[in-house]
Amino acid sequence: MNRRLSLITLAMAALGQNAPLLPFADATPDTILRGQSTRVVVKGRDAASLHTLKVEPGDGVTIRAITPLSASSVSVEIAVEGDAKIGERQLMLTLAPTISRTPSVRESGLSQQPLEAFRDSIVKGNSTVMEAGSVYINSHAISITNVSVVANQNHRLIRITASDTRGDFAAQARPGIAPAAGIQLVTAPDWMVSEARCGKDVFDSPITDAVVASREGASATIVAQLSMEGLAASGPCELRVRVRDAAGNTSGWYTSRLR
Q1: How many CB atoms within 10 Å of residue 235?
Q2: Which of 78, 172, 216, 233 has the maximum number of C-beta atoms within 10 A of its C-beta?
Q3: Residue 134 CB contacts under 8 Å (≥ 6 apart), including other chains
């Protein structure tokens, strides 16, 4: 299990060192059904950078409106065509270079317009487009409905209930283990994504050895191991987990408190 710093944590660290605050775009919700127009709230460094928000690849996805909510969040109306390709899309921001301004003495009445026009041309020509977050396009609803954890020293048994309305919830094939009846197998290693957030630290993939234990209708029960090694011994700690089906649909994050 690897520890990493979240975008927000890195941004705050940069701010403490008087470095430029890193941009980010954190969408809630971050899953969108195709064939619909959905409003999501996107938090970031500032509303100005969020107003440059674009979705890539943009095929079948249109941003209709961006409305400011606060100094660091906006409401975004996203329309997705009915035949848009499902899967992950990147949220992109356009960042202008920082230009230092030094006070100077000039003759009274001298126009600043030529200087401002020159400055604007430099900014436009040197802007940087960067990936700042993600959203997921789905063909139908898929979700995690429950997560329960049983304590067991450094490892805990975890039981996850996932629901897929199309019944094509999938699990990675595991050597020597037969899949539950009706479960379609996929080989993608990221069919389940998990992280533990403890204070300012984010730990990647604390859930391991996931196996689909049973299925009833559109609901599947997953049994896995949750490693507690390396997690901070004190302070609040939460678990986030999401799943992906055979067609590439992604559930939203399911969040539960570890302590």
Answers
A1: 11
A2: 78
A3: 27, 30, 88, 89, 90, 91
Dihedral of the CA atoms 76, 146, 152, 226 (nearest 10)? -40
pLDDT in tens, 211-224: 777 778 788 888 88
The vertex-154 CA angle with 151 and 158, nearest 5°, equals 45
Quick one: which H or E segment has residue 110?
Answer: none
Rounded distance, CA 169 to CA 182, Å? 9
Query: Per residue in 127-164, pLDDT tens?
Result: 788 999 999 999 998 999 999 987 665 567 888 898 88
Query: Measuring CA to CA, which residue among 74, 106, 108, 111 is closest to residue 91?
Result: 74
15: which 2 tokens? 């701010």
Q: Which residues contact 166 (CB under 8 A, 6 or more apart)?
A: 139, 140, 218, 245, 247
